[in-house]
Task: structure prediction
Amino acid sequence: MEKLLDLLTQEMAKAFAEAGYDEKYARVSLSNRPDLCEYQCNGAMAAAKEYHKAPIMIAEAVAKALGGSDMLEEVQAVKPGFINMKLSPAFLCSYLNGMDGDERLGCSQAEHPETILIDYGGPNVAKPLHVGHLRSAIIGESIKRLGRFMGHHMIGDVHLGDWGLQMGLIIVELKKRQPELVYFDEAYEGDYPEEAPFTIAELEEIYPTASARSKEDEAYKEEAMQATYELQHGRRGYQALLGHILHVSVTDLKRNYANLNVEFELWKGESDAQPYIPAMVQELKDKGYAYESEGALVVDVKEDSDTKEVPPCIILKSDGASLYTTTDLATLVERRKLYDPDEVIYVVDKRQEMHFVQVFRCAKKCGIVKEETKLRFLGFGTMNGKDGKPFKTREGGVMRLEYLIQDINDEMYRKIQESRPMDREEAEKTAKIVGLSALKYGDLSNQASKDYIFDVDRFTSSEGNTGPYILYTIVRIKSILKKYQEEGGNADGAKIQPCENESEKALMLELTKFNGVMENAFEEIAPHKVCAYIYDLANAFNKFYHETKILGTEDEAAKKSRIRLLGLTRKVLETCIDVLGFEAPERM
Result:
C-alpha cells in the first residue's frame, strides 16, 4: 500500500496543477498544529516567490481545486498561506480496511532487496557478558529484524574477540595449573580430547587471573606473547585449546544471548579473518597503497575536506603484528568473498568512530569492498547509572549481564504479585517476558547515539513511556477481544466504519502512520522511532478505550467495527514489538 502522506501529496499535486502552479510545491506533511488540522501543505509560501503572488492567493486557489476531493472532509486556506486539511472519515476507513486485509498491514517490502550484513555483539571469548555488551546486542538485533521485515536479506555476525594476547594468557595460565595436559607436549601427534579441560566458570576465572599476573610479571607476559605467536603460527596443541575455548565460550554466550532474545546467523571471530591477512597486505603493497612509516605499514586515508586530523590507517605494526584495523579489513575481504553484501552496518560504541572512519576509507580506497558497497557506522552511547556515570554494581565493578537481567525479572515478579497475584510459575514466566520488554524498550526508546540513565524503577513501571506500558496496552486489547469471543461475538467479514468521536479518529490516524514509520526507521537505522510510534499509538488507544463504549454499545455494527479496529491496533503493536525483539504475555 502507498503511504497515506504520499496519496495526499499526489492529490495536492493535482490541485496545484489545476490551479496553474508547479506540482513540486505540493508536499503534504502531518500538521504541527493538530488542534487546527490533521495535515498541512506549506507549498504556497515557496511558490509565492516564483509566481510573484501573495501566498494566501495561491493557497486559496489550490484549496478551491481540492474542494471536490473524496479524500478530504475539510480544506482551508489560512494566512499567510497554509493549506490545512482534515481527512474524510470514509476515506480513512477505506485505508484502514486495506491495512486490515493485508498480511503486512499496508507496509510494502523493498522493491530491490539487498543483502545486508550487520556486525553487532562483539564479545570476547573466555569472558562473561557484562552490561557494556547490552546496547550492541539490543540495537543490532532490532535493526536486523527491522531490515528483515522490510524485505532485505539480513545476516547478523557476532564478531567474537578470539585472537591476540588474551588467548596466549589463557594458554600459559592453564599450563601453569595443569602442565601434564597433552596440549603442551610438542611431540604429541595423536588426536586431542573432545572434552575441554575446563568449564566456563573455570575459564572465566583463568583469564582475569592471567591478565592481572601479566601486568606484574614481565617474564609471564613474555611467555604469553610467545604462546600467542605459536598459536597464530599453527602449533597443534594450542590450536586445539583455542577450539575448546571457543566451544565452551560460545555455548555460554548463546545461552546468555537467548535470554535477551538475540540470535546471530554467524558466530565468526577475528580468527576467521586471519587467513586473509597475508594476501591482503601483499596486495596493498603491490598496488602502492601501503607504505612504511616509522617501521609500520600504513595507508593514508585523509581527505582534503577533512576538518579534523584523520591519521593514517596502520595495517601492520613495526614488529609485523596485526591490529584491530588489520582484522577488520580482512573481515571485509572475507565477507565480500563469502556473502558479497550490498551493505555492512557496524553497531559499535560511538567512541570507536575514528577507527571506523579509517577502516571504511581504507576499504574503499584500496578496493577491499566494491565501490557501491555501503559501509555504515552506528555508534551508540553509554548506559549510565543514576549518578550519570557508566553503570556499575554497588561494589563499583562492571555488572554481569545475566545478573542485570535477573534483577529486572525479580523486580517485575514483585510488581506482578503485588498488583495481580498469580501462581508462581505463571508469574515467573510473565515477569521474564515483561522484564525483557522493560530492558529492551528502556534502551531502544533512546536515540542510539545518546547516553541514557538506566533506571530499574522507571523502566519496570506500567505507566509512562515504558515497555510494560506498551505490553499492558496489548494485554488490554487481547482481554477485550477474548471477552467478545466468549460472549459469542464474531466480527469476521466486518469492516471498520467511520468514527463516531474524536478519540476514535485519533486512533485511526495513528494507525495510518505505520508503514511510513517502519520505512523511515529502517532508512535511518533508528529503532527509537518505532518506540516513539507505538507509545503514541498506545496513548491513542487508551484514550479511545476510556472515552468509547466498545463491548457495551447497543449498536451491533459499531461494536463489530470497533472490534476490527482493536484487532488492527493489536496487530500493528505486536508487529512493532516483534521488530524491537520482545513479545506480550496473555495477561499481566
Observations:
- The first helix runs from residue 4 to 18.
- Residues 165-259 form one domain.
- The CA atoms of residues 298 and 505 lie 62 Å apart.
- The radius of gyration is 29 Å.
